[in-house]
Amino acid sequence: MKHILRPIATLAVAILFTSCKKEWNELGSQLVVSDDLELFSFDEQEIKISVVEEDSLRSLNSSTSYIGYLSDPYFGNTSASLYTEFRIPSTDVDFGVSAQADSIVLSLDIVGYYGDTLSPLTISVREMLETIESTTTDTLDVETIVNIYSSDDFDVDLQLLNNAQQELLPIASSKLNITLSNAFAQQFLDADPANYADNEAFQSFFNGLYIAADQGLENGLLLELDLLNESSKLTLYYHNEISDSLSYDFQINSSADRMTRWSHDYSATEIESALNMEFVTQGYVQGGVGLRTYVELPDLNSLKDSNYVFHSAELIIPYISNELDSIFYGPSKLGLAAVNSDGNLEVLTEDQNIQGSTYFDGNRDETTETYTFNIARYIHKVVQEGYTNRLALYVPTSVSQPQRLIINNNAEDGTGLQLKLLVSH
Description:
Layout: E1 5-8, H1 10-19, E2 39-42, E3 48-53, E4 65-72, E5 76-84, E6 100-115, E7 121-127, E8 135-137, E9 143-145, E10 167-168, E11 175-180, H2 182-190, H3 199-205, E12 209-213, E13 220-226, E14 233-239, E15 246-251, E16 258-265, H4 270-274, E17 282-286, E18 291-296, E19 309-318, E20 335-339, E21 345-346, H5 349-354, H6 357-360, E22 361-365, E23 370-374, H7 376-385, E24 390-394, E25 404-408, E26 418-424
Antiparallel strand pairs: 1-2, 2-26, 3-18, 4-5, 4-13, 5-12, 5-16, 6-11, 6-13, 6-14, 7-10, 7-12, 8-9, 14-15, 17-25, 18-24, 19-23, 19-26, 20-21, 20-24, 22-23
């Protein structure tokens, strides 16, 4: 077994326990005699890591949505596209006699950026040919929720609704405005009034829009959008026999289903090889439903009959900086969960929820270029109860956070992951 035990002086122990927060307490504290307590530290546990692609995640009606693309030499190509429905604000829709379209504009509220804010975007907009069915009704008329995942696709009309050559510089505004074709606009004015009887009828008439960004030659940019903001809408400008300069807003509200569709291409990157290797010296974590790094702690099995009391356990994750970090920055916080025998993630309840987020940590330390987790109760479960010794590192709420990170596990030069254990008999 590859570890080192180091006894620590009783005086240091006394200082340690008076300075530590009580919440870390004290697995097995009833077995500890403070007057002659002798602690040992383990800091060279073997740690193995591997890289896996995230399973598709539920992405229906997330708080924010994304469109855009990224071209990252370390993480390959990422694209985010958007499906969204629309609603009519009232049922008394009357466009008047001989209504003619002047224009129609899709407006999307921008709340954030990820990537190169100087990269232009070429946006494509198409009409959806099917609705986002988020519920289903069985033969007994019982309605159930249908999960919509980040890899799901819906049928769309191949005909573009906007100018395919139009390059947009979204950083110049807090709102993305895309002018669509007048032929598309006129369809709303020529529609049978029955299509505006209520939102159910309107949804059958107009399924929604699919918005995507074409791959460019530069670093690329992702736009974070708030579709529930009142400025996110489809505005029809028109005139009739009586009035000019009329407008009507088709809204995106909480009743309108919407989802981000994430896609990644890791070809021609080191990730492509890493995904096919059992263990690697360099891990990858990526949001946007991208990548996770699995962490295995094989040496813990040898401690099963040791009768150690685990007072603290710090898992330290070093990351690797590169020249593109200012553009493709890493997450401010990582997630950590256990991986069970079925490959599913389980929350580290005792450390994360009972002890609290401050204790559990996982925040980035830019000075040491590390993330640290406190997982004493988890280690106790592994050693004493035979719990899984496999963990997963990931970007929290990955479906709505695109950040990425390279993890260093080069054990040869001592710069890899570390598990620092403080134990007593």
